[in-house]
Amino acid sequence: MTEHNQGHRDTVAAMLRNLSHQDFKDFGTELMAYVKPVQKDGRAVYALYAADGKLLGVQDSASLAVAMGRHNGLEPVSVQ
């Protein structure tokens, strides 16, 4: 790692350590979503949630839920 990269990482780490609880809670809210397997009407489906926990939609497959998130400008991550 170069000195520049290490300095940048240290700066970012310091900024993150100084976030308030509310800032940390809101961090990435408009950019990220998560895909989680759930049961609906007795069948396995995949729910897409906003970073703040709001349900955005349900799809039959994880790949469709990810595509739905990306189509709406979000970067989905999978959780179990």
Can you offer a commentary on this structure?
The chain is an alpha+beta fold. It folds into two domains: 27 residues, no CATH class; 50 residues. The protein is 39% helix and 32% strand. It contains three helices and four strands. It has a four-stranded mixed β-sheet with strand order 3-2-1-4, covered by helices on one side. A hairpin with a 2-residue loop joins strand 1 and strand 2. It is elongated, with a radius of gyration of 17 Å. It starts with a helix and ends with a strand. 12% of the residues are buried.
Kindly summarize this structure in a few lines.
By secondary structure, the protein is an alpha+beta fold.
Strand content: 25-35%
The order of strands across the largest sheet is 3-2-1-4
What class would the helix/strand composition place it in? alpha+beta
Report Rg: 17 Å
Helix run count: 3
Oligomer: single chain
Shape: elongated
Order of helices and strands: HHEEEHE
Query: How many strand units?
Result: 4
